[in-house]
Amino acid sequence: MAADGACTEDTDPADAARRRFRELAEPELPRLYRLARRLVGDDAEDAVQDCLLNAYRRLGQLEHGDAAPAWLTRILVNCCRDRHRRRARRPQEVAVEDIEQFSLYRKLADEDPFPYSDSLHLDFLHRFGREDVQAVLATLPEHYRTPLLLVYVDGFLAKEVAQMTKVPLGTILARLHRGRKLFERRLWEYAEANEMLREPVA
């Protein structure tokens, strides 16, 4: 009887689904949590929990295990978006003209904050630690921050991000371009506010 019971348990569809989900989700958890931290900050743990719950309910929609990373990422991004919508009735807007007019290279050349540097751009970027970068990213509107993180941090292709977010590829490419420009401008503003544009005193 015990053997029969074990056989029944092994072939139970619910148990098989739980095992499959655990095998697919557990390796992705650290990456999902890092992404959620960058997207929603302190709400990351709740966002990942929402993601896992939604993913488990939709497990039957996943045909191939190799697609699990992108599939879970898409669900997490949607969960984070829902949290953004609940926190803010209107999305944060930034004038496109203001974004396009800013050039970090030109700003560094004009201001010349490090007069003895032979590599202004690199010297500027090297002043930012991980926490600084995360603080600047957190100031970007969600529709710019999300594609930047998915492409430049998580390594997805722009066309994959378009599929995940259900946004046209051309729009994603435009947001990546403008998001990079806005990120550079916010880096400069952050550096000014934190007095990072000075040569260290010898």
Automatic annotation (TrEMBL):
Annotated GO biological process: DNA-templated transcription initiation
Alphabetized SUPFAM superfamilies for the sequence: Sigma2 domain of RNA polymerase sigma factors, Sigma3 and sigma4 domains of RNA polymerase sigma factors
InterPro entries documented for this protein: RNA_pol_sigma-70-like (IPR039425), RNA_pol_sigma-70_dom (IPR014284), RNA_pol_sigma70_r2 (IPR007627), RNA_pol_sigma70_r4_t2 (IPR013249), RNA_pol_sigma_r2 (IPR013325), RNA_pol_sigma_r3/r4-like (IPR013324), WH-like_DNA-bd_sf (IPR036388)
GO function terms (MF aspect): DNA binding; sigma factor activity
Domain RNA polymerase sigma-70 region: 26-90
Domain RNA polymerase sigma factor 70 region 4 type: 131-181
Pfam family, one: Sigma70_r2
Name listed for the protein in its UniProt record: Sigma70-ECF: RNA polymerase sigma factor, sigma-70 family
Source organism of this protein record: Gaiella occulta
